[in-house]
């Protein structure tokens, strides 16, 4: 009979893969228990409900990623001057190291983050924002120091566009690397992919701010 620790790990391992592949909404607890080879009572005993299980799955990655990102940002913020690319490169090593923590860790982690948004998991976003507020604030501070002209609304949109591009790219790592090898005869690693992504993200966040065009509606003929 499996011990408590082993049972919890089996549940988390099964949930992690199913959530990343199918999403939080589409994955039932019964599907998870079937893949993990445990009964439903085990999930209820260890995690209570699905929301708690979702947070536990993501926490395994966040507890590895966030402290490492915090350390990178703290070093960066001691500098008098740095660019937007420097800010985004702070993410590179913590993200790549997730591949050492778990097989395909970076890809799975970014897939789970993306699912948190596309599945409208408000409780998950609240969990991340409150538990890791200090790290997220350091990141925002670094972005604002690299580009002081960003107003709060523009910053909001550009960081969310950045998240979308990052999630799609990192969650599609395997497919993108296979396409690059097939079409361009190039072997691409996760590190190569991030190095290509960073300048793109930095340029997008630091792009000049333009005023939105106001559409002037013409008056119907004969109204005057």
UniProtKB/TrEMBL annotation:
<dbReference type="InterPro" id="IPR041586">
    <property type="entry name" value="PsrA_TetR_C"/>
</dbReference>
<feature type="domain" description="HTH tetR-type">
    <location>
        <begin position="5"/>
        <end position="65"/>
    </location>
</feature>
<keyword id="KW-0238">DNA-binding</keyword>
<dbReference type="InterPro" id="IPR050109">
    <property type="entry name" value="HTH-type_TetR-like_transc_reg"/>
</dbReference>
<dbReference type="Pfam" id="PF17939">
    <property type="entry name" value="TetR_C_30"/>
</dbReference>
<dbReference type="InterPro" id="IPR009057">
    <property type="entry name" value="Homeodomain-like_sf"/>
</dbReference>
<dbReference type="Pfam" id="PF00440">
    <property type="entry name" value="TetR_N"/>
</dbReference>
<dbReference type="InterPro" id="IPR036271">
    <property type="entry name" value="Tet_transcr_reg_TetR-rel_C_sf"/>
</dbReference>
<dbReference type="InterPro" id="IPR001647">
    <property type="entry name" value="HTH_TetR"/>
</dbReference>
<feature type="DNA-binding region" description="H-T-H motif">
    <location>
        <begin position="28"/>
        <end position="47"/>
    </location>
</feature>
<protein>
    <submittedName>
        <fullName>TetR/AcrR family transcriptional regulator</fullName>
    </submittedName>
</protein>
């Amino acid at each position: 009979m499996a011990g408590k620790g082993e049972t919890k790990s089996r549940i988390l391992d099964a949930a992690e893969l199913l959530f990343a592949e199918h999403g939080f909404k589409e994955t039932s607890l019964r599907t998870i228990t079937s893949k993990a080879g445990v009964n439903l009572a085990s999930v209820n005993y260890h995690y209570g409900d699905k929301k708690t299980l979702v947070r536990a799955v993501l926490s395994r990655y966040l507890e590895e990623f966030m402290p490492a990102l915090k350390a990178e940002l703290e070093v960066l913020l001691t500098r008098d001057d740095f660019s937007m690319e420097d800010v985004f490169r702070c993410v590179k090593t913590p993200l790549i190291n997730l591949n050492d923590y778990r097989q395909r860790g970076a890809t799975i982690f970014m897939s789970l983050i993306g699912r948190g948004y596309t599945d409208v998991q408000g409780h998950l976003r609240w969990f991340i924002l409150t538990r890791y507020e200090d790290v997220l604030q350091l990141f925002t501070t670094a972005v604002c120091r690299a580009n002081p002209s960003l107003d709060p609304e523009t910053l909001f949109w550009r960081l969310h566009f950045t998240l979308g591009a990052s999630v799609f790219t990192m969650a599609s790592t395997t497919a993108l690397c296979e396409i690059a090898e097939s079409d361009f005869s190039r072997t691409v690693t996760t590190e190569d992919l991030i190095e290509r992504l960073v300048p793109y993200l930095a340029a997008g966040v630091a792009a000049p701010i333009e005023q939105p065009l106001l559409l002037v509606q013409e008056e119907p003929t004969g109204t005057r």
